[in-house]
Input
Amino acid sequence: MTTQQLVSEIRKKKSFLCIGLDVDLDKIPAHLLQEEDPIFAFNKAIIDATHHLCVAYKPNTAFYEAYGIKGWKSLEKTINYLNEKYPEIFTIADAKRGDIGNTSTMYAKAFFEDLAFDSVTVAPYMGKDSVEPFLAFKDKHTILLALTSNQGAFDFQTKTVDGKELYKQVIETSKSWENSQNLMYVVGATKAEYLADIRKIIPESFLLVPGVGAQGGNLEEVCKYGMTDTVGLLINSSRGVIYTSNGTNFAEAAATKAEELQQQMETILK
Output
């Protein structure tokens, strides 16, 4: 999917909501555990109920890898269902990969070719040659961890090196990498006050913003400092949407929560 197609979908749906499909068998409704594939059954119901309210879905691969081969098959079935039934949806493999060049190439093939995701999250710690293999894929997007929403982000990301915070150096350096136009960036909603400075470095790039909802991020603050003329934001909510209810009405409840967020977004877009 191209960036232009993503922007078009945002304008059409009046939404820049991304829903995280972080499926924990201990949290999904008990009646689904009788299904042959409870994870896929849960995802399918959530997707069918919310696809008209969001522009992206983001499965965190750890929630699938934890269940071994069965979990990976559930992930494969989920992405195949999205690509076949709702091809207009932007898909994000939240895998946080990143390794030496030949290994990164294989990671990229796994998510871009085999599973056919539109994008994948990547850790930048190993530098240029660990990220550029992902950037080589046409019409695919590499979402670089820039400034995350967890407490430990302050351990390294905001430390000053030669007078400049490390996360700023990472973002600035990434702009020089080959095919950097295929980069997006993760910036946590709980770091909204940092967005103004980030926009000075990457004024047009799309930002994936987790942390709205369960982690306490503020949507209005994020949009105030981070929105661009083409919106430039994907606001992710995972637990805050998919676990709204653990009853038989879980999908409808998730849709109600997703609609609340979409309505807020529509108001902001006006």
The chain has twelve helices and ten strands. Residues 101 and 130 are 5 Å apart (CA to CA).
